[in-house]
């Protein structure tokens, strides 16, 4: 158990709908990262928040948005869903900002169990 | 971000055989991280390599970072069925921490 929780575990919805995925980081971790994992694209970084502020964006579609709340939990909102959005969505947390090179564990990210989204 | 190419995509081994997966980049990497994802599970951080030519060991796992910091490898000695999973390398890009993952190598261990 990584200490990162994600809800829901599974989500089945229809095209055009909107869903919200939730992530609670490990206690004390200020950074939350969102990833999308699909068979054909592998593990893709979506977005990174640190202490409530957006720090970096990856390959995140405009239909997707995220935020990190004062209690540090984060939500990923996916709207106008398409069949191709079906994937596993992971969040991960870490203590710091990332980009730390002072030790072999300094950029360690702890992944949650993921939310499997199926768009029909 | 940069792209790291990871090979092979799949590797079947008999239990007890060794296994190696490689990550290669056309540009110099700041650091490289390795993760393991068991079937149906989530990625689990294994290690980060930072220094040129670095070699780190974790029991039967040996991680190497190339002298030019353009490639890395993960070697498992005498594989066990518990080693089954997909091994990913990941590197960060630029000033903002944007992790870029390789496509992973899926290890299948036959008892």
| Major sheet attributes of chain A | 7 strands, mixed
Instruction: Sketch the topology of chain A as an H/E string, one letter per element.
Output: EEEEEEEEEEE
The helicity of chain A comes to under 10%
Tell me the distance between the termini of chain B: 39 Å
Query: The biggest beta sheet of chain B, please?
Result: 6 strands, mixed
Look at the helices and sheets of chain B and give the structural class.
mainly beta
Q: What's the shape of chain B?
A: globular
Beta-strand percent range of chain B: over 45%
Task: Return the average pLDDT of chain B rounded to an integer.
Answer: 92
| Termini gap of chain A | 31 Å
Low-pLDDT segments, ≥5 res of chain B: none
Structural account:
The complex is a heterodimer of chains A (120) and B (111). Chain A is an all-beta fold. Chain A is 0% helix and 50% strand. Chain A contains no helices and eleven strands. In chain A, strands 2, 4, 5, 6, 9, 10 and 11 form a seven-stranded mixed beta sheet that branches. The mean pLDDT of chain A is 91. Chain B is an all-beta fold and 111 residues long. Chain B has strands at 5-7, 10-14, 19-24, 32-37, 43-49, 55-58, 61-65, 71-76, 85-93, 98-101, 105-110. In chain B, strands 2, 4, 5, 9, 10 and 11 form a six-stranded mixed beta sheet that branches. Chain B has a five-stranded antiparallel beta sheet with strand order 1-3-8-7-6, with no helix packed on it. In chain B, β9 and β10 form a beta hairpin. Chain B is globular, with a radius of gyration of 13 Å. In chain B, 40% of the residues are buried. The chains are: A mainly beta (120), B mainly beta (111). Chains A and B meet through β5 and β10 of A and β5 and β10 of B.
């Amino acid at each position: 158990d990584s200490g990162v929780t994600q809800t829901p575990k599974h989500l089945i919805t229809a095209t055009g709908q909107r869903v919200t995925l939730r992530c609670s980081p490990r206690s004390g971790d200020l950074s939350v990262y969102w990833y999308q994992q699909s068979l054909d694209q592998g593990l893709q970084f979506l977005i990174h928040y640190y202490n409530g502020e957006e720090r970096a964006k990856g390959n995140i579609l405009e239909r997707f948005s995220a935020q990190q709340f004062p209690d540090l939990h984060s939500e990923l909102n996916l709207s106008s869903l398409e069949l191709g959005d079906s994937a596993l969505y992971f969040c991960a947390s870490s203590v710091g900002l990332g980009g730390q090179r002072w030790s072999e564990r300094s950029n360690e990210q702890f992944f949650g169990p993921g939310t499997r989204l199926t768009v029909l | 971000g940069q792209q790291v190419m990871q090979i092979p995509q799949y590797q079947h081994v008999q239990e007890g055989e060794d296994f190696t997966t490689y990550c290669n980049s056309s540009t110099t990497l700041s650091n490289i991280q390795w993760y393991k994802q068991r079937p149906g599970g989530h990625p689990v951080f294994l290690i980060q390599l930072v220094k040129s030519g670095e070699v780190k060991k974790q029991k039967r796992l040996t991680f190497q970072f190339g002298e030019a910091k353009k490639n890395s490898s993960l070697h498992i000695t005498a594989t066990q069925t518990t080693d089954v999973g997909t091994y990913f390398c990941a590197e960060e890009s630029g000033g903002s921490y944007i992790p870029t993952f390789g496509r992973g190598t899926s290890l299948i261990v036959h008892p």
